[in-house]
Amino acid sequence: MPASPSFSPTIIDRLVDACAGMSEPRPVGVESLIDDIEDLLNTCSVAPGAALDGLPEASDSLLGYGTAPPASLAIATHEERLAAARSLQRTLLRYEPRLERVRVRVDDTRPTCNEGRFRIEATLREAPAESVALNIRVRSSSGRTQVTTERS
Fold this sequence. Notes:
The chain has helices at 11-19, 30-41, 56-59, 78-95; strands at 99-106, 115-124, 127-141, 144-150. By secondary structure, it is α+β, with helices and mostly antiparallel strands. It is globular. The chain has one domain (11-150): Nuclear Transport Factor 2, Chain: A, CATH 3.10.450.40. Residues 31-128 form the IraD/Gp25-like domain. This is Lysozyme-like protein. InterPro entries: IraD/Gp25-like (IPR007048), T6SS_TssE1-like (IPR053176), TssE1-like (IPR017737). Pfam families: GPW_gp25.
């Protein structure tokens, strides 16, 4: 079995390690990357989209980190799921620098009105020969959205 690639730690990991007095960063593996993707996709942007139009510095700041508010992430129809896939892909391309060539596809094999299934495929920036593929579920109920990865 080939060794799992390691990545540069995220900014959060580096800050936590620095506060703990660690001088050398710990290598971060694929499981940590998957956890970070889950965290990113479950974070609601404070000021999404049009709220930051005309403010390029603010648009590139943490104000926009995360996904659109749950109320705007409709997944009841196939067209809404396609739009959600595009939104998820934009979020990953923008805020997950360890990935490149990110593609998010809709998986409509078991459609329900309050759950969307998506497949994320990407290559790892620090190991271009390696790829990652995740199946995620987006549940929309009670005005909340929850993203979970299906790990094998």
